[in-house]
Amino acid sequence: MKNKILFILFSLFCFFSEGYAKDEEGNTYKTPERLFYISRSANKNLVCYDINLKEGKMDSRKPLKVYWVNREEHPGKIGELSFIQRKLAYGYKLLSSQNDICICSLTAYPSRRLTIEQQGDKYICLITINNEPAILQSLYVKANPRNPLNVEYVKLTGLSLSTQREVTEIVKR
Predict the structure, then answer these.
(1) Are 43 and 20 in contact (CB under 8 A)?
(2) Cα-flanking dihedrals φ and ψ of residue 47, to 5°?
(3) How far apart, in whole angstroms, are the C-alpha atoms of residue 130 and residue 94?
(4) pTM
(5) How far apart are CA 170 and CA 173, in angstroms?
(6) Model confidence over 118-137: pLDDT tens digits?
(7) Cα gap 113→22, rounded to integer Å
(8) Do 153 and 171 contact (CB within 8 A), yes or no?
(9) E strand map for the chain
(10) How would you label 65-89 residue by residue, b for 16+ Cβ within 10 Å and e otherwise?
(11) pLDDT tens-digit profile of 93-103?
């Protein structure tokens, strides 16, 4: 049921996007604060999740800054999420926050907990990928090109905490 909700919500936003991306790679306009991003097959634009800092520390009330990065019509241009995008697909819910560590979940994927914490001089987002603790780097949403409302899979990519190698998991419908 939880995976079904994820696919339905991502499908809605893939449907309202123009064009189709040829690949999931390319310039991600990385920032020093970037934790992870979502790319989609619907187009090349990204939804980016950066740590929201307040006086050099994570803002405990609003730990993530979420926004669009255009990689098609106006490459590098940043835009805000709409109210509907925040509430139904790309937003997040803060579950707990204390001592510069917070736990949250993505609106469209509430079954996976994200732990945001400081590691050295930067912040990371921890998640379980393929039953392994990992640092989340990206999610890729693959929609059916003939029917953008039908998401074929979501691919999670991260860096394994134990091996320091890339780990992926594909969540199919």
Answers:
(1) yes
(2) -105, 120
(3) 24
(4) 0.82
(5) 10
(6) 999 999 999 999 999 999 99
(7) 30
(8) yes
(9) 34-40, 46-51, 53-54, 57-58, 64-69, 78-80, 92-98, 101-106, 109-119, 122-129, 132-144, 147-160, 166-172
(10) bbebbbbeeeeeeeeeeeeebeebb
(11) 999 998 889 99
